[in-house]
Specification:
2 domains, Nucleotidyltransferase, domain 5, seven-stranded mixed sheet, alpha/beta, 484 residues, globular, single chain, six-stranded mixed sheet, 17 helices
Length: 484
């Protein structure tokens, strides 16, 4: 990543909102190389209001707006902005005004939504419609709760988070396809809104706006927004893979069909890029999902928890620690964990008990005790147990993906924050008995910027995904790990 003070040639801005933090990164492609510069990073901290968990969406918009203003100060020649975020969550609007505060996908209301939906549409029938992995927080279940409460009656539109941000910037309401595919309301067969399913569930067929594909122009910054951000010329907001994993997969330097990807962050998204959805009963039973990718591809994958387990453990230890203990940081714990030579507990990281925030080390020990496994005792053992468990889950998931698709995986690409965790990468290579290629780290922002670069002509507008990935290879180093 470019670390100089110069912003010359960096005429694109990626707004990348993750479940724990957000960033604004400038970029530009010249001579087949992508240069990047971060201009803003900020925390994304949930709000607990009464018994409910919400996103502080107004604060996020204020932070990203300050980041965009800084981008315009550094590069008055900025021509495009792209927005990506986590999936499934949304804001509800009436006449363009936000109603309430968007719920967090980890809010406890979701189980009621599952109950409501499955009374009307059986799980196998729902999978036949949308091809999605069952996750209690999928948008379809959240909206079912809104409908039951009567809150949905107040709204005339629902916008997924990146679509909401784009609306506030441009005044245009659109639904970007890759994120729309995570709602459970998009047909897996033709990529259109499944209005029949929506009506069956008592959801208004026009609740979600018209679809737009990555690379298409959403609109220009509205005049008042442009003035506040310091834009002196018309600036377009470009649809990218607005589901952060869709953008991240664009930046995975896959080489052929025998490569798998793991987008490793708060969640781990483990899977393959394929051309047609797999909607067999075996895929449903294995809880795999078919999500839309850039250029009409399918991300055939499974959510396998992620570094959320580690960050929540660190948060708990920070809360419980004495002043002397607070000097023990993650880097030192990872070194201690790597030095452990005896076996540690391997647990199921996808167990529902690990989804809500809270005391993760105690939950891990409780899981082990219930399953007759010796629980980890020290903090280093907990860290090693988390990483061994994630690596084992990755290996198992990829083996299942091979069976379901007939593919033979020869290499595993890990991108995102987890690609910096050398212990996790090595354990994954060991458990999967495959070569692991780690990097790039900022995959989501890279994919976001590359789709913009193609849309505005910084790369050939007819470039394929393989050609965009060649830009990644030209621009960012990777690290290989071989099975021990």
């Amino acid at each position: 990543m470019d670390t100089t003070d110069s912003a010359a040639g960096l005429t694109l801005a990626a707004v990348d909102l993750g479940a724990t933090s957000g960033r604004v990164i400038m970029g530009g492609v010249s001579d087949g190389v992508l240069r990047m510069k971060p201009v803003a990073r900020f925390a994304n901290v949930p709000q607990f209001l009464g018994g409910s968990m919400h996103w502080n969406i107004q604060s996020l918009f204020a932070e990203l707006s300050m980041g965009l203003r800084e981008a315009f100060l550094r590069s008055p020649g900025l021509v495009s902005i792209g927005i990506d975020s986590w999936a499934v969550d949304y804001g509800m609007l009436r006449s363009g005004e936000l109603l309430g505060i968007p719920h967090h996908y980890r809010d406890g209301r979701n189980l009621r939504g599952v109950e409501i939906v499955h009374k009307r549409v059986a799980p196998d029938e729902l999978f036949a419609h949308n091809g999605l992995q069952h996750l209690d927080f999928n948008t379809v279940f959240q909206l079912a709760v809104e409908a039951e409460s009567g809150f949905l009656d107040l709204a005339d539109r629902a916008l997924l988070v990146p679509d909401l941000i784009a609306f506030w910037l441009t005044g245009q309401m659109r639904s970007e396809l890759t994120n729309a595919s995570t709602t459970g309301l998009l047909s897996v067969h033709d990529g259109s809104w499944d209005t029949g399913l929506m009506e069956n569930l008592g959801l208004p067929a026009d609740l979600l706006p018209d679809l737009i594909a990555p690379g298409e122009r959403i609109g220009e910054l509205s005049p008042p927004v442009a003035q506040r951000l310091g834009a002196t010329a018309p600036i377009q907001v470009t649809a990218v893979g607005s589901h952060d994993t869709a953008s991240a997969v664009v930046a995975v330097p896959l080489e052929g069909t025998n490569s798998a990807f793991i987008s490793s962050g708060t969640w781990s998204l483990v899977g393959l890029e394929i051309d047609e959805p797999v909607v067999t009963e075996a895929a449903r039973q294995a809880n795999f999902t078919n999500e839309g990718g850039v250029d009409g591809t399918i991300r055939f994958l499974k959510n396998v928890s992620g570094l959320w387990l580690l960050s929540e453990s660190m948060r708990q230890w920070e809360h419980d620690a004495t002043d002397a203990q607070r000097s023990s940081d993650l880097e030192s714990l990872l070194a201690e964990a790597a030095a452990i030579e005896t076996p540690v507990a391997v647990f199921d990281p996808s167990d529902d008990r690990f989804t809500p925030p809270g005391d993760m080390p105690t939950r891990i020990r409780d899981w082990c005790t219930e399953h007759g496994v010796e629980p980890p005792r020290t903090r280093a053992e907990v860290v090693r147990s988390i990483l061994e468990s994630l690596a084992a889950a990755y290996a198992k998931t990829l083996a299942t993906a091979e069976q379901l698709t007939g593919r033979n995986v020869e290499a595993i690409h890990i991108v995102g924050g987890g690609s910096q965790n050398t212990l996790l990468c090595q354990l994954t290579a060991n458990r999967a008995e495959r070569k692991v290629i780690a990097g790039p780290v900022e995959a989501t922002a890279i994919g976001n910027l590359l789709v913009q670069a193609r849309a505005v002509g910084q790369v050939d507008p007819t470039s394929s995904l393989d050609e965009l990935r060649q830009v990644v290879r030209n621009s960012f180093p990777v690290t290989e790990y071989l099975p021990a």
